[in-house]
Design a protein that fits this description.
mainly alpha, 0% strand, Four Helix Bundle (Hemerythrin (Met), subunit A), 119 residues, elongated
């Protein structure tokens, strides 16, 4: 059964909530990446006192960069879903590969889903 107007409205709200959440996280990562390790750790020197400290700092920076990339991709998926919902609301919630309806329960959890479970 196709999504009802009430379900589509609910999914639009969920998409906007998720968009706000992701944008907030990206803003926080942007601030954190702009802060030097010296500032955030309270170190008095930029020279690590131990090689392991330098490795940990590098790992943390790379992890933050990976998370920023993941969140940016997620934000794009959310924006694409909002566009699909606005441009073709009657077909929103259909699996892009099979054309079958994606269960509302899945869309409620991941409102930008393009495929049903097991696809």
């Amino acid at each position: 059964m196709p999504l009802t107007t009430k379900q589509r409205d609910h999914l639009e709200r969920r998409l906007r909530e998720e968009r706000d959440r992701v944008q907030g996280l990206l803003s926080r990562y942007g601030r954190d990446l702009g802060t030097s390790e010296q500032d955030s750790d309270g170190d008095i020197t930029k020279v690590p006192l131990h090689p392991a400290d330098e490795g940990t700092d590098t790992f943390d920076t790379e992890l933050d960069a990976q998370e920023t990339t993941r969140l940016t991709t997620e934000l794009q998926e959310i924006d694409d879903a909002l566009e699909r919902l606005a441009s073709d609301p009657d077909n929103f919630g259909r699996d892009e590969a099979t054309g079958k309806e994606i269960p509302f329960e899945r869309l409620d959890v991941i409102p930008w889903a393009r495929h049903g479970i097991g696809a």
